[in-house]
Specification:
Layout (H helix, E strand, L loop, with lengths): L9 H8 L3 H9 L6 E2 L5 E2 L2 H12 L6 H13 L5 E3 L5 E3 H21 E2 L10 E2 L6 H9 L4 H7 L5 H13 L29 E2 L7
Antiparallel strand pairs: 1-2, 3-4, 4-7, 5-6
Helix pairs in contact: 1-2, 1-5, 1-8, 3-5, 5-8, 6-8
Length: 210
């Protein structure tokens, strides 16, 4: 993660860590991670909280809750460690998890710089700056199976990077109320697919028995 501290809402934390926002709130409620109150943002999480989130759910199928808590204690005691041994056979690649979080956090900040809501432009719907292209529409098209190349072809004012950033921005800023279907926006659904969350990297060292 970067040296500059950042504060994230639960939705932003979900977007950066690639953990469902419901799971983020569950981790907060169970005190797996702590939250802080920052002005009008309400619950706020730090970079270290995001690392705990990613590792907690990333190794959840491998380590018990108690062993995951001991893992956090070990990381707290060795904050600069690139890898941490969780048990005799499992090594956690903490540096890789931090790199992934840092990259996604920067992508979210980049998206924030490229997206705005202007009164009178598409009904105050968030759009990419200097365009009238609704960000949520682009994210919905991606979720329904449209490729980045197809979207850019249909919206020449966008770049491939802008299409990619639409997805993380929408997760960080969930719309209120019932989401509008693509058909309600005059768009045709091509196909549907499920997107899986990427777990934190773990590796097992080779071992031999005598």
């Amino acid at each position: 993660m970067t040296n500059t501290p950042h504060a994230y809402t639960p939705a932003e934390a979900a977007a950066v860590s690639e953990i469902a926002v419901k799971s983020v709130h569950n981790a907060i409620d169970k005190r797996i991670i702590e939250t802080h109150l920052i002005g009008s943002r309400g619950r706020a999480l730090t970079d270290e909280d995001l690392l705990r989130l990613k590792l907690w759910y990333g190794v959840g199928s491998i380590l018990s809750a108690e062993r995951r808590k001991r893992l956090f204690d070990t990381i707290d005691q060795n904050p600069d460690a690139e890898t941490v041994r969780a048990d005799d056979y499992l090594i956690i690649d903490v540096a890789r998890a931090r790199e992934q979080l840092s990259a996604r956090a920067e992508a979210l900040r980049e998206a924030e710089r490229l997206i705005e809501s202007v009164k009178g432009v598409v009904g105050v719907e968030p759009v990419f700056k200097r365009t009238r292209v609704p960000v949520r529409t682009i994210a919905a098209m991606k979720a329904q199976g449209a490729s980045t190349a197809e979207i850019v072809e249909g919206y020449p004012s966008l770049t491939e990077r802008m299409v990619e950033l639409a997805e993380i921005w929408v997760v960080a800023h969930p719309a209120r109320g019932r989401p509008r279907k693509l058909s309600e926006q005059g768009l045709k659904v091509k196909s549907a697919k499920r997107l899986s969350l990427r777990n934190a990297n773990v590796s097992k060292p080779s071992s031999s028995t005598s």
